[in-house]
Amino acid sequence: MAKEDSILNLMLAHHAFIESLFLIFKDNLAGNPEAAPLALADFKNQLKKHFVSEEKAVFGFCKDKRDSELCRIVEILMKQHEMMMDMVNNIEIALSVKKETDSETLEKMLRIHRDIEEKELYPEIDERFGGPEKKIMIEEINKIVLEK
Ligand SMILES: [Fe+2]
Ligand SMILES: [Fe+2]
User: Fold this and answer.
1) pTM for this one?
2) What distance in Å separates the CA atoms of residue 14 and residue 123, rounded to the nearest whole number?
């Protein structure tokens, strides 16, 4: 299998990118609160695209296979997406009214989520799907991520 046809490799890169945006936000929250809302908006925008790309381009294979082990993981991951977006929205609201907020719970959940995807989900998807199927997934992921 060609390296470029690995969903895991693509998602490792996405996760690293999102983490760097999160760290920029965290740094600003701690030392430069004026810039925190903008950094948060940047992070939120990419996080949202990432979630949409996973849900639309990858998790779709679970539509009619709800009972398989892998799809049970997908279900948990989708719930976590929702929870993390709620956390981000709550931080955003707190910042807008200058209320004290922290990013620790979100950071923990991001890490747990990323671990499940990188250690369980994506290696299994790389195993299970063939090159042509993965090529379609990768094209779809790239399309969503590049959308404005
Ligand atoms: Fe995810
Ligand atoms: Fe992810």
Assistant:
1) 0.93
2) 15
d(CA 46, CA 124): 25
- Residues lining ion ligand 1 (Cβ < 5 A) are 54
Ordered per-residue pLDDT tens for the chain, 148 residues: 455 589 999 999 999 999 999 999 999 999 999 999 999 999 999 999 999 999 999 999 898 766 688 999 999 999 999 999 999 999 999 999 988 898 999 999 999 999 999 999 999 999 999 889 999 999 999 999 988 7
Note the ligand closest to the C-alpha atom of 84.
1
Backbone φ and ψ for 97, nearest 5 degrees, come out as -105, 15
Nearest CA to 95 out of 87, 136, 66, 56 is that of 87
Report the alpha-carbon distance of residue 19 to residue 15 in Å, rounded: 6
- The full set of domain ranges for the chain reads 3-146
Spacing, Cα 98 to ligand 2 middle (Å): 30
Query: From the CA of 118, which ligand is nearest?
Result: 2
